[in-house]
Amino acid sequence: MAVFGRNGSQARIAPRDPPWPTGVGGAPRQVGVEVEFAGLDTADVARLVQARLGGEISASDPHRWSVTDTALGTFKIELDSRYAHPESHSGPTDLAMREAFGRVASIVVPTELIAPPIPYRKLPEIDGLVSMLSAAGAQGTTEWAPYAFGLHLNIETPRREMSTILPIFRAFLLVSPWLRRRMGIDPTRALLPFIDPFPTEFVDWVVTAPDDIGTQTFIAAYCEANPSKHRDLDLLPLLASLDAAAVARALGHPQKAVRPAFHYRLPDARLGDPSWSIATEWNRWVRVEELAADPHRLKLLGRAWRRWRAAWLAGEPDWDRMVDKVMA
After folding, report:
1. What spatial distance separates the first Cα and last Cα of the chain, rounded to whole Å?
2. Cβ distance 183 to 312 under 8 Å?
3. What is the CB neighbour count within 10 angstroms for residue 79?
4. Are 277 and 2 within 8 A, CB to CB?
5. pTM of this prediction exceeds 0.90
6. Could you list the pLDDT tens digit for every one of the 328 residues in the chain?
7. What is the distance between the alpha carbons of residues 246 and 252, in angstroms, rounded to a whole number?
8. What angle do CA 119, 121, 122 make, to 5 degrees?
């Protein structure tokens, strides 16, 4: 089924309502979108964003642009490599070298479109923009083997308490292998460390952790097992928004990105594939939250995980079948 045309028309997949449709302040939950791709210069992307959504274009360097005051807010477009961007104290020689590096690196280093947080029901507007970029030549994950490009969703947490965050995280850990197979994650992305699954021993700990676990206890355990953002669901920004000092103590340094959102890094960025859309990936995430919002199903799957772990050690690897029974 076609999701959007290559002429820039908006996606026809509607975002599903999550079980927690509003955030902490009572407004519809917001989602920040980050899309990686190749094939277009950052300046050209900025002009296309402006053409579709209005706003004012500015550049801080040749490979980092902003489009402010658009119909949806401020967009950032940049080459996803710190070596392409000059430091504030850079001289003319360094600036020229970084500009040249950016031109060469753009062959394999992705351009990243960073959209502002928007209400989740407006995701089709981002899909329409991405379709327009695709029509202009943007290339996604499947167009060349080295293009291990991702879609990141920064999904606002519905509540700040662990009593809500833990079930959502637990549900994701339990269904993550199932999601990977159904999404058909690009083999190159699966081999690279950017979307590593969580260590199995840590999954065991989360599945059996007390439902009333304290925030600082969880932060300490999470950071010890996962000191990097390179996970398929990075919680560091969210945990830092709850207690930045506790995260800094656990990591040994301050966490740079701080926002009250799940940093969902798993999906491919399949620009050019007419069956793919951001709304589809959001709807997959909603399946995770639906499981989290159903304590009975979540407990069933947690018990199944513990049985499967014992069976897996004895040579039984079929976790998908168990998840299918719960997610059907």
Report:
1. 22
2. no
3. 25
4. no
5. no
6. 333 343 444 447 899 999 999 999 999 999 999 999 999 999 999 999 999 999 999 999 889 999 999 999 999 999 975 433 355 455 555 444 444 434 444 456 899 999 999 999 999 999 999 999 999 999 999 888 888 999 999 999 999 999 999 999 999 999 999 999 999 999 999 999 999 999 999 999 999 999 999 999 999 999 999 999 999 999 999 999 999 999 999 999 999 999 999 999 999 999 989 999 999 999 999 999 999 999 999 999 999 999 888 876 555 567 888 898 888 7
7. 10
8. 70
With helix as H, strand as E and coil as C, how does the chain read? CCCCCCCCCCCCCCCCCCCCCECCCCCECEEEEEEEEECCCHHHHHHHHHHHHCCEEEEEECCEEEEECCCCCCEEEEECCHHHCCCCCCCHHHHHHHHHHHHHHCCCCCEEEECCCEEHHHHHHHHHHHHHHHHCCCECHHHCCCCCCEEEEEEECCCCCHHHHHHHHHHHHHHHHHHHHHHCCCHHHHHCHHHCCCCHHHHHHHHHCCCCCCHHHHHHHHHHHCCCCCCCEECHHHHHHHCHHHHHHHHCCCCCCCCCEEEECCCECCCCCCCCCHHHHHHHHHHHHHHHCCHHHHHHHHHHHHHHHHHHHCCCCCHHHHHHHHHC
Report d(CA 189, CA 147) in Å as an integer: 8
Residue 43, φ and ψ in degrees, nearest 5: -65, -40
User: How many CA atoms are closer than 13 Å to the CA of 21, on its beta-carbon side?
Assistant: 4
Token pair in block for residue 229: 């953002």
